């Protein structure tokens, strides 16, 4: 028996390769399928099944392409109704893989088709579960994504998830290994642990949602409390996973086109494409094409693209480090952004050499920011998440989370210099690029973010709940 977790940090996503006696199964594959095919070839194995735990919202799976290239059937759990041919497993249906058995356990709640796959070894002993978005480490899947499709409230879906966990997952032995679809950083949950593999027994101790004495009502309240709105691209990814999409090779052929500065500028003007700069934030700060948006490959690239660009059909023109163009196109396609139409050959240096205008972002280190802050009256905007801000923030700073930066545009001063920061400098540069594209240029980025600010003498504070005055 061979089990491999193929983890993609940018998406905080785990796909799985299982092999026994020359037969292999892939669970929740990513869009680019060649690595799975090559992995099976190294074992002289044939991919027999492609299991999908549910219709994913945060990435486009490679199930359709992988099935076409290998002939392996796609397997979904009950209630799935894809537009393509697939095996819709019954609850408890078994699939043989060499000496192993994979059992489909219908575990609705995150979505109504959500299914956990239980792996039994050659002796029939329960060995592991591939829990998809039903059970994470430290958390469970959010129950608000499938409300429209299921015609249910998030509270009703949470109640169904409670039953799934209690009736299908928690009765399993403590030594069963849990392999979830996501880890910390995914928007599919809110309290995930940084680890990506654990035992069910430890999760019963550590995971708030698996408390043995938890009532249904308590579960519903805790699971639905504090849920932020999902990224706008989520339902578009579900649609692609359910109805189909272009092969990744076609997407690469369309997007991997080198353009001269003149051709690049013409394409931007004629198509309304977003000019997406994926270099390091320091390079973007020094010089960039005016009105381009920065989202660097070195951070959580694809999720931020999805959160901030939203429309997966948006045409995109890339500015990338040399040799990284195909990587950028591939990572965009993982979240359904298939509209890349080309990239700037020679990058910003070629743009400047052609005599075209460039812009920059003023960026200072934390020590310089400290000097300005001590002079008083310096507006500071924190683009981290609310939970980060609540834990600790610069005294007097305004919270304008990057996810919702467009909702806060009116709060930024028009005639006074203000400062932006995040945790380490990545998100604040994204925010700066968005603000500059909206015509707001009187900003200064704090390089190194809150991590470096804390090393200065600038006072920081945690959130203090306002006192409620008596109405007597």
TrEMBL record:
It comes from the Bacteria. One of its GO terms (biological process) is hydrogen sulfide metabolic process. Keywords: Metal-binding. Pfam families: Lactamase_B (PF00753), Rhodanese (PF00581). InterPro entries: Metallo-B-lactamas (IPR001279), Mito_Persulfide_Diox (IPR051682), POD-like_MBL-fold (IPR044528), Rhodanese-like_dom (IPR001763), Rhodanese-like_dom_sf (IPR036873), RibonucZ/Hydroxyglut_hydro (IPR036866). GO terms for molecular function: metal ion binding; sulfur dioxygenase activity. Residues 269-360, 374-462 form the Rhodanese domain. This is Beta-lactamase domain protein.
């Amino acid at each position: 028996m061979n089990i491999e977790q193929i983890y993609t940090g940018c998406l905080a996503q785990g796909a799985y390769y299982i092999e026994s006696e020359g037969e292999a199964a892939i669970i929740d594959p990513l869009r680019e399928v060649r690595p799975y095919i090559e992995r099976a070839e190294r074992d002289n194995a044939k991919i027999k099944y492609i299991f999908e735990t549910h219709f994913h919202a945060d990435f486009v799976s490679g199930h359709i392409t992988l099935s076409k290239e290998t002939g392996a059937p796609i397997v979904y759990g009950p209630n799935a109704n894809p537009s393509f041919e697939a095996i819709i497993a019954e609850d408890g249906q078994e699939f043989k893989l060499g000496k192993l058995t994979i059992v489909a356990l219908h575990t609705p709640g995150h979505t109504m088709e959500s299914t956990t796959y239980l792996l039994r070894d050659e002796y029939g002993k329960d060995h592991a579960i591939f829990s998809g978005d039903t059970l994470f480490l430290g958390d469970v899947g959010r129950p608000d994504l499938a409300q429209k499709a299921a015609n249910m409230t998030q509270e009703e879906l949470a109640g169904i998830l409670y039953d799934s966990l209690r009736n299908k997952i928690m009765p399993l032995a403590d030594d069963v290994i849990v392999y979830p679809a996501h880890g910390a950083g995914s928007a599919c949950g809110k309290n995930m642990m940084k680890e990506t593999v654990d035992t069910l027994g430890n999760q019963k101790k550590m995971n708030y949602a698996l408390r043995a004495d938890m009532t249904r009502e308590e579960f519903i309240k805790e699971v639905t409390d504090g849920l932020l709105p999902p990224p706008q691209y989520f339902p578009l990814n579900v649609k692609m996973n359910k109805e189909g999409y272009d092969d990744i090779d076609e997407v690469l052929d369309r997007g991997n086109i080198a353009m001269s500065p003149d051709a690049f500028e013409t394409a931007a003007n004629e198509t309304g494409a977003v000019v997406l700069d994926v270099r390091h934030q320091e390079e973007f700060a020094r010089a960039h094409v005016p009105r381009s948006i920065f989202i660097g490959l070195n951070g959580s690239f694809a999720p931020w693209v999805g959160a901030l660009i939203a429309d997966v059909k948006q045409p995109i023109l890339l500015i990338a480090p040399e040799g990284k163009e195909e990587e950028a196109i591939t990572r965009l396609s993982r979240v359904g952004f298939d509209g890349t139409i080309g990239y700037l050959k020679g990058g910003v240096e070629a743009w400047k050499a052609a005599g075209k205008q460039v812009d920059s972002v003023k960026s200072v280190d934390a020590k310089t920011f400290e000097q300005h802050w001590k002079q008083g009256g310096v507006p500071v905007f924190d683009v981290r998440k609310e939970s980060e801000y609540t834990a600790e923030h610069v005294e007097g700073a305004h919270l304008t989370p990057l996810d919702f930066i467009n909702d806060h545009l009116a709060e930024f001063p028009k005639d006074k210099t203000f400062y932006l920061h995040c945790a380490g400098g990545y998100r604040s540069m994204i925010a700066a690029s968005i603000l500059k594209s909206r015509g707001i240029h009187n900003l200064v980025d704090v390089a190194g973010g809150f991590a470096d600010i804390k090393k200065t003498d600038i006072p920081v504070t945690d959130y203090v709940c306002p006192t409620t005055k008596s109405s007597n």
